[in-house]
Amino acid sequence: MNRKITAAVVGTAVLALSACGNGAASTTSGGGVQATSAATTGSAKDLSSVCPKTVVMQQDWQPEAEHSAMYQLVGPGYTIDTAKKRVTGPLVAGGVDTGVKVEVRAGGPSVGFQPVPALMYLDKSILIGAVSSDAAISGSVKQPTTAVVAPLNKSPQILMWDPKTYPDAKTIADVAKTGAVVVTAGDIIPALLMSKGMITKKQIDTGYEGTPARFVGDPKILQQGFISAEPYIYEHEVSAWKKPIGSQLLADIGYNIYPEAFSVRTDDVTKQSACLKKLVPILQQAQIDYLANPSPVNQLIVELVQKYNTGWTYSEGVATYAAESMAKYQIIANDPATGSLGGFDEKRVQEILDTFSPILKQGGASIKPGLKPADLVTNEFIDKSIKQS
């Protein structure tokens, strides 16, 4: 999950070649999701005749359990490129080798913090990108993308507080009304809170750097985090804290985006339709398969973090907690409108447009005139029979 939420314009970007230079790669023969058979020619899991030889997927941040649906596809014998921060292996679906490879690329500092839509238009080999709804709206003029699968049904973003400082607080609103400073890494969250009358301008601090130092040193603040990470990290891994935090999901108060939806360049909805018809149900099922047995993918994610060695840390404990919390808080869940894992609710997408378009415009984004839900999402390839039980 992209740890820095901003309302910046998604403009033309220049690929950070320094992050993609030549470097050593290591090969691992074990690990990954095991393949027990090869797909029968022409079957639903045979991608060899309809998809690229390597299905390239771009994430928006460094490896973590929220990205599990992509990493679930990486089969044994994968290769880790430690210079370019990507892993490549056979694309395996439910134990079946699909006949193509999958390459999952890390985002964030690995690509100079460039937005995923910009990367997708710079490098046309990228078929699938993890694009949150607000990023898709911001990129709608120059880098239009259309989401084809929602691996996460709602955002795991939270605001967190110290229960000792605010013993009676149950919600973000309870803490915000005290005048607490809201510390985030960007301006979308505070803009949303201001639009709802929950905070004033003087409470905004967009200087969050992603470390616990500020919260530990000033427990009166409200700080951004993730329900799938920070509660565990602060209680078990931050030596200067080592106690519970209080929190509430931002999804509860209107941050209703589809986070990191698996998206294609809008023209590819048609151009790659034969591939997407088979690939999308595989992506849907991959997220379900991960929750059923998260350990192999969690081990891969932790291995990638260690070998990429970017300064990002991610333990097996956090990964295990993330899987449990994403199920508990229904971050991974069926879409209520379609009843399927990965589907989209166009009414919800319209609400996202209504809420975030003004905020993004205020931040400088250029938004396509007349942008509508059908521009941003499609259920065309969703298999409605695939559900999380």
TrEMBL record:
Keyword Signal: yes
Keyword presence, Signal: yes
Signal peptide: 1-24
Entry keywords, A to Z: Signal
Protein name: ABC-type nitrate/sulfonate/bicarbonate transport system substrate-binding protein
Source organism of this protein record: Kribbella antiqua
Lineage: Bacteria, Bacillati, Actinomycetota, Actinomycetes, Propionibacteriales
